[in-house]
Amino acid sequence: MSSTVTRTRLGMAAAAVSIVVLAGCSSPESSDKASAASCEPAKGKVTLQYWNAVPGMEKVVDLWNKKNPDIQVETKNISNDQYGTIGNALKAGKAPDLAQVGYDQLPNLRTQDAFVDASACEEAAAAKSKFVPWTWSQASFGDTGVFALPQDTGPMALYLRSDIFEKYDVAIPETWDEYAAAAKKLHKADPDLTITYFDPNNAEWFNGLLWQNNAKMYGYADDKWHVTVESAQSEQVAQYWQQLISDKLVRTDLAHGSTQMYAAYQKDQIASYVGASWGYSMFRDNLPKQAGKWTIVPMPTWGANGASGNWGGSTVAFMKGSKHLYESVKFNTWLNTDPEALALENELGGLYPAATDGLELPSLAEGVPYYDNQKIFDVFAESSKKVDTSFTWGPTQKTVNLALQDAMAKAAAGDGTLSDALTAAQDAALKSMQDQAIPAAAGK
Amino acid sequence: MTDIATRATRVVESPAGRRRINGGGPRAGTVVAFLTPFFLPFVLFYLVPVGYALWQSVRVVRRTGGQYGTSYTTFGGFEQYLEVFQNHEFWASIGRIGLFGIVQVPVMLFIALIMALLLDTPLLRLKAFFRITAFMPYAVPGVIAAIMWSYLYSPQLSPVVDLLKGVGLEPDFLGPGAVLWSAANVSTWLWTGYNMLIMYSALQSIPQELYEAAKIDGANNWTIAWRIKVPIIAPSLVLTTVFSIIGTLQLYAEPAVLRQISSNISSTFTPNMLAYAVASGNNYQQAAAISVVIAVITFVLSFGFMRLTSKKAGL
């Protein structure tokens, strides 16, 4: 025993020494203000690093690599802990040239000084006209800088098991009130059947629902952020789902995309799915036996307010430290505006383009076999037009989402309500901004 | 009987002691050659990260102007630690694993001890087989074990749940009240064999003459086990307890995996998960402070336990 104690004491002494050494050689980790980098083409062959989480993206990149021998792109799939991987790489100064970043995480990474402004590259600045306006505005932070190019969006819709709705003679719901009534009817007809599931671990999905109801969570004015996660609009959404949970009309035990969730769908225990455009390939690839049974209709609306929601969607960001901005811009523009690339991304990864031309792709005008040849992208195009374009994300969204999820889980377990979850998210937003020295206040 | 135990301890310890006294002093060069392979990684992968964490934990983020601003870190004294101490999520997570440890560690070590004693009895056949099968779970990485168990817990996929439903039970292994114990079960499954092996090795080093002497004195197998074997292997019980205390405080993989199928495990369920959640929110300095506090608590508890037991048992 005594030898262990000695060893530990030695260890502590060594640790103390190493702190002194570290303290001695460190310098303040200040960072320069994001200024436009220069845009010089490289001499000779260049290899770019591109990190993403899109299924099938390596095939799109193969296509580019075949056509562009001088600008080769290497991909890395970071779908497992996407932002943790990017954050750590940034901290280590080893970020890739390009990385997929969701709209909701852009401000977060911006406050970490993750991006380089590519506006010095003509092609990047000119790309503005090619994208759905709100996506460009979010990716450029409403500024003249170009920090990322939009890739896809997630306009929301309602996926329905038309066979189940027909079997129990339930009309397709157009409003949330009708949806709740349908939930009651279906569950009454078959106690093992619920209309959908509420995943307490999915703040992104819930944010999409808040977005639909014009619940703005953040604003910026008078040199500070204004946090309005708690508002009359968000309260309305929270109380609606709370009611469904309390009445046990929705399941709360299924995590989005889990084996358990697919199993429940497979067993015909769930009749619908409130999802985004990219979910179309997810259902097609994971529930092949249910081909022909699904129909996609517009998302239920809040009475007279016909707005739709958006869940997810990403950009491809220009990461700080890239030595090949010119080439990065060339690849990034191709990746997100070229019809051939966009069609492939839609087919393999389910991406719904953010480029305006992309919405006119011939492949998006066709019926999709899995959905009984329904022209499902017409529904998403309509939804996309009805998304509130002024919605903005906060600079500490990840922390806020975690707090929201933890509190949503409590509500699902009957320990608190979804209104409490909004309060928890509001508090977490203010606290996390304070921790990051970002000036913030509650209310508008 | 205590007398026998004390005598036994002396018998076991004396050969080692003699060797230490008689061993000749090796040359300095040899010492360095043998220690470098240990110390180099120890410094690189242990001391340097610990030092870095301590350094980070006394920093705070500041920012200059604008909507997104430019951040830099500066010395902040004990600001991060103050926040940790005021963070009720942190204390809730400590309380949770405290409860976990108080139940799981004794249960696991008790089972391990029983298994070790059973393996050590002359009555048992197929010892090698039982030793291997008991140890096998330890060879399974923690994450894999948790994934495997998560299938057994899952109401949608589990044959166990189906079976229990068949006899009229409605188990909810992932419910708010049960999920902590479901995680504890995974840990117990993983680590019992490992602990058993440490205890079994200690039992193996007890000289057989001792048992013969005890039998002549009229002791049966039960008495030999509880009055001779257990006291003699007390140091290994202390060791496994200390390992288990450390393991409990570092609990991460099992609840993190179960979290993917149960919303009743929050992102701050254990102190390590809290540190991870905070770090993933870019608050590396706060995460460093949390890690340091966890390390200090681990240190205090494990050494506190060792001192306490060594004083009591005179080890």
UniProtKB/TrEMBL annotation, chain A:
It comes from the Bacteria. Keywords: Signal. Residues 1-23 form the signal peptide. InterPro entries: Bact_solute-bd_prot1. This is ABC transporter substrate-binding protein. It comes from Streptomyces cadmiisoli.
Automatic annotation (TrEMBL), chain B:
The keyword Transport applies. Keywords: Cell membrane, Membrane, Transmembrane, Transmembrane helix, Transport. It is a multi-pass membrane protein. It is found in: Cell membrane. InterPro entries: MetI-like, MetI-like_sf, UgpAE/MalFG_permease. It comes from the Bacteria. Pfam families: BPD_transp_1. One of its GO terms (biological process) is transmembrane transport. One of its GO terms (cellular component) is plasma membrane. PROSITE patterns: ABC_TM1. Belongs to the binding-protein-dependent transport system permease family. This is Sugar ABC transporter permease. The lineage of its organism: Bacteria, Bacillati, Actinomycetota, Actinomycetes, Kitasatosporales.
